Amino acid sequence: MAIRDIRVVGDPVLRTRCAPIERIDDRIRGLVTDLLETVDRDGRAGLAANQIGVDLRAFSWNVEGELGYVLNPQLVEISDEIQGGDEGCLSVPGLYYPTQRATYARVEGTDLEGRPVRVEGEGLMARCLQHECDHLDGRLYLSRLDAEVRREAMREVRLRF
Question: Which residues bind Fe cation (predicted)?
């Protein structure tokens, strides 16, 4: 398939809640291939389908040497413990802001064979799972920033994009 272009902030597909995948066919297999090939680059931790212009519930990840995907993911568990740290996004290139996320997250969905998939992790993986599920709900990480930081971020977004 292909490494796909990343949609950037301002593109309406990034603010659209993605539809569930109802049937696995060649189009969905191609989407998964594109998600995996596109995320498999240095500096890329995760990629949601809407970031490549497809409004379906699927994402891929590339965290600590592990490459994978999940269809119809649902965030089913997060820890009460919070991690800080800067977060960035391929759809908001070059901008990183302190973002609070749970230190642990678990996502459940399916694979291309329709079998159940469970993906969980702490640290960067937890951040990735939460970030990509937000994308599929039409939400950018910028909306999670503290009010003062968000104002600064939005100012920078207007200047750059």
Answer: 89, 131, 135
